[in-house]
Structure formats: structure tokens, C-alpha cells
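Progress note, sequence design subtask.
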């Protein structure tokens, strides 16, 4: 072997494997930084569901409350996480599900706004074009994020006839994860 440079090992790539891409703008946005831990966990679960279908079912993603509880989101925190995700423009609840009765289950259907999805036209039929709507981009600052969450929480309470679990932090507070500052 000559004294030349050592060739670095090439990392394996899996071009056929589906993946979820987050833009730098989204990761640095006020909306993304305002998400609580439970909202992020729910977002991760919806992305996993998206990947499980090869990235072709956005807008028809199903995750039951039981699925989210298995993923580590407490039953009292699911509604709070969904409220944050919807209020801050990362998730659209396409179809509101209902309680399971016997063998009948009708879970919510979700759409991740930062990924491509075929949207319904004015007649309710899915269009042939795919869109990314990025509603999170409209959140202006921390105060706007707080207002959006408060409005969505109030609407949720009116729709469900019960109080949503209060958030334990202000949007402006730094996020903590397992006792460590993020």
C-alpha cells in the first residue's frame, strides 16, 4: 500500500425506502419551536404511518388514541398535542372520528401539511395534483402561536363539550426533554 490517502467508507443508501423530509425553514420556525413534547410525539407517529404506506396516504393517515397511547402519549395529553399540531398548522384533521363501539371503529384521518397530499376539489373528489400547504408558515411569532393554540383549544372544548387539558408551559419557555434543556 502506498502512502496515499485512505478512502473513506461509503455509507449505504436505500433509495427505495420512503422517508420524510423536513425543511430547514420548518425546523427553525416559531411554530415548530412552539410544539410541546406530546405534539412532537404524535407528529412522529403520523410520519411513521405515512412511511408505512410508502408515502402515498397523506390525507388518509389513521392513528387511533390507543395507537398514540402505545407510542407513549398519555391519554390526557393526546387532545393537547393534537390541538397544538392543528393550531400551529402542521396537521389537518381531514375526518373527525368517533368513539369505538363494539367492533365498529372510525378513527380520525390526518394530513401532514408539510408533505405532499392529493387534496379534494370543490366536489369532494381527490385531484390528480399533489399539494404541500405548509400552514405552519403563517405563524408570525410566539404570541401568535399562543393565540392560535388558545383559539383552537376553545373550539375543541365547544365541539367536545369538555375542557381540554391545560398546557403546563408557555410557548416562550424553553423545551425540556426528560429533565434536560433542549
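Output:
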Amino acid at each position: 500500500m502506498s502512502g496515499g490517502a485512505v478512502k473513506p467508507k461509503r455509507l449505504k443508501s436505500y433509495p427505495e425506502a420512503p422517508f420524510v423530509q423536513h425543511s430547514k425553514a420548518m425546523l427553525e420556525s416559531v411554530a415548530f419551536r412552539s410544539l410541546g413534547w406530546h405534539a412532537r410525539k404524535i407528529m412522529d407517529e403520523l410520519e411513521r404511518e405515512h412511511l408505512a404506506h410508502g408515502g402515498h396516504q397523506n390525507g388518509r393517515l389513521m392513528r387511533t388514541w390507543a395507537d398514540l397511547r402505545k407510542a407513549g402519549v398519555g391519554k390526557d395529553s393526546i387532545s393537547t398535542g393534537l390541538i397544538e399540531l392543528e393550531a400551529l398548522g402542521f396537521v389537518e384533521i381531514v375526518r373527525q372520528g368517533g368513539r369505538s363501539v363494539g367492533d365498529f371503529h372510525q378513527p380520525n384521518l390526518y394530513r401532514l401539511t408539510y408533505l405532499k397530499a392529493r387534496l379534494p376539489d370543490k366536489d369532494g373528489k381527490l385531484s390528480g395534483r399533489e399539494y404541500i400547504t405548509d400552514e405552519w408558515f403563517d405563524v408570525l411569532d410566539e404570541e401568535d402561536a399562543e393565540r392560535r393554540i388558545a383559539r383552537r383549544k376553545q373550539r375543541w372544548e365547544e365541539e367536545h363539550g369538555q375542557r381540554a387539558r391545560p398546557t403546563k408551559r408557555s410557548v416562550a419557555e424553553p423545551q425540556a426533554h426528560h429533565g434536560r434543556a433542549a
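Helices lie at 24-27, 30-34, 37-52, 65-70, 78-87, 142-160. Work on this subtask will continue into the next period as scheduled.
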